[in-house]
């Protein structure tokens, strides 16, 4: 049974193409967007290629970034590209074929990379021996919290590129896993 990660947004879109309210969900190797208004399009897979094992999702409504944990490479990644690509049905009628090549990312690539006309993916948090398990995002303080499944830690990084800010909790007995945050405006 699939246990999709789910995030809901009620932010205003900067473009008129996408829905104003949507739900983001993952199914191991893909992230999809479902419009919540009756007149929105059906769920659409986002154009993020090379996803292997998505463990958690977070959405930053201030900067329009989507954050996720890549469970295969044990890093936190982000992408700003929230607009789906148009797909056409192949000749066999069984698989969608993208009209242009999509960017695939590798767990060996750290930092930002971009190709003209394609999406941009950034590795936000990576470290020796870390295994991110859950995410919580504070869009107003511009901070990202994440738990480590092997070190039993709760870490904090800045959203301006993943600069580590420290460890909030380090415990040998407690095993912090899932996180939730209630940010205060201003």
Automatic annotation (TrEMBL):
SMART domains: LY. The keyword Cytoplasm does not apply. SUPFAM superfamilies: YWTD domain. The keyword Metal-binding does not apply. Keywords: EGF-like domain. InterPro entries: 6-blade_b-propeller_TolB-like, Cueball_EGF_LRP_Nidogen, LDLR_classB_rpt. It comes from the Eukaryota. This is Uncharacterized protein. The lineage of its organism: Eukaryota, Metazoa, Ecdysozoa, Arthropoda, Chelicerata.
């Amino acid at each position: 049974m699939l246990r999709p990660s789910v995030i809901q947004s009620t932010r205003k879109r900067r473009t008129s193409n996408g829905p104003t309210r949507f739900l983001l969900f993952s199914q191991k190797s893909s992230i999809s967007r479902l419009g919540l208004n009756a007149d929105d399009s059906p769920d659409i897979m986002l154009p993020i290629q090379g996803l292997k094992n998505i463990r958690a999702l977070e959405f930053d409504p201030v900067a329009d970034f989507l954050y996720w944990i890549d469970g295969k490479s044990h890093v936190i990644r982000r992408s700003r590209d929230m607009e789906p690509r148009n797909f056409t049905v192949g000749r066999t009628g069984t698989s969608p074929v993208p009209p242009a090549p999509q960017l695939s990312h590798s767990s060996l690539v750290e930092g930002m990379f971009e190709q003209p006309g394609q999406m941009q993916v950034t590795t936000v948090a990576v470290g020796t021996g870390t295994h991110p398990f859950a995410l919580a995002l504070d869009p107003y303080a511009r901070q990202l919290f994440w738990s480590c499944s092997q070190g039993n830690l709760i870490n904090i990084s800045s959203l301006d590129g993943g600069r580590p800010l420290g460890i909030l909790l380090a415990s040998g007995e407690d095993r912090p896993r899932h996180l939730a945050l209630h940010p205060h405006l201003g």
